[in-house]
Amino acid sequence: MKQYKVGVIGGTGMVGQRFVTLMEKHPWFKLTAIAASARSAGKTYEEAIGPRWAMDTPMPEAAKGMVVLNAEADIEKIAGLVDFVFSAVDMKKEEIQALEEAYAKHECPVVSNNSAHRWTPDVPMVVPEINPEHLAVIPAQRKRLGTKRGFVAVKSNCSLQSYVPALHPLKDCFGLREALVCTYQAISGAGKTFQTWPEMVDNVIPYIGGEEEKSEREPLKLWGRVENGVIVNADTPAITAQCLRVPVSNGHMAAVFARFTNKPTLEEIRSIWAGYQGRAQELDLPSAPKQFLHYFEEDNRPQTRLDREREGGMAVSIGRLRPDTQYDYKFVCLSHNTLRGAAGGAVLLAELLCAEEYI
Ligand SMILES: NC(=O)c1ccc[n+]([C@@H]2O[C@H](COP(=O)([O-])OP(=O)(O)OC[C@H]3O[C@@H](n4cnc5c(N)ncnc54)[C@H](OP(=O)(O)O)[C@@H]3O)[C@@H](O)[C@H]2O)c1
What we know:
- The chain is α/β, with parallel strands linked by helices.
- It contains 13 helices and 14 strands.
- The radius of gyration is 20 Å and the shape is globular.
């Protein structure tokens, strides 16, 4: 397999640190550039991070001495050092849109963790197991941007990466009319640790800005179709969401209630989850979990601390499937928000883009 040179834009942040860590032993990708704000530029990665290293594993040796570049001022230089970049910057939406398109226009593909381009109709928002066919809009986007290689592809929000994977194969088989979800989201989703957000110890905050709208709307783009070079969003199902911040370091849990067009049996649901394989599994991508959806029979699973790291934090854990008094069924789901939900999901998307020869 070909080797690809990779840059991380926003490499000093919480998600950026994950990207840097995931590149350490990646079989296809080699980290050749790290960029961040002017505050970090010119320092070695180790100096720029200072006390901010938030990963469980030590900083990769190869990254420590790399000199951090300026994500906005050094675009041409970075584009010359890499085959593509991951983007995870904390800036205003319009600034991120402009920055990512500037990389694309320098013929540098961008695989983004940011929400800025999620609603751009010719930017594919892809979970490789769910909607890999949306990559077909890339030629139209290249035409709009006037590029040959460059484009922007994004991953969806972390909150929905537990319940959409569980609902997706059921929707295809039985039709999904309505879903109600309550999410219980980890503090790393806000780029925080208990040290940097002590108010979260022994506490729940019933508000995450913008998260409920994303949780309700983004699934409709994932379930949309490609038409004339853009994604046309699905009209259904109706989704309603409440999103709570809970005192957990990593791992977003979701409690889900679902109503179907043709109500399946419990056995049918379990068997569809057990057998579900997406494009990532068919292509045997390096970061793809072997078993995407893992169902627990135990009543007290999945548990965040025990189950978030399943298959490198890339599998989705499901449990407590049972009939409901208002909806057809209810169940709980868990996914790792900075792995499957952020950097890991973007790495898997980049692997798909390489395997399908868009990069
Ligand atoms: N945390 C999650 O689980 C998660 C999940 C999904 C999506 N996201 C999204 O991913 C993005 C990054 O999140 P995060 O949690 O990693 O944030 P973070 O820890 O605050 O890191 C922000 C990064 O952006 C860089 N940056 C800030 N201003 C910049 C500028 N003007 N030019 C270039 N770089 C700049 C920072 O560089 P300096 O170190 O130099 O300041 C740092 O590398 C955000 O858009 C967030 O919404 C996060």
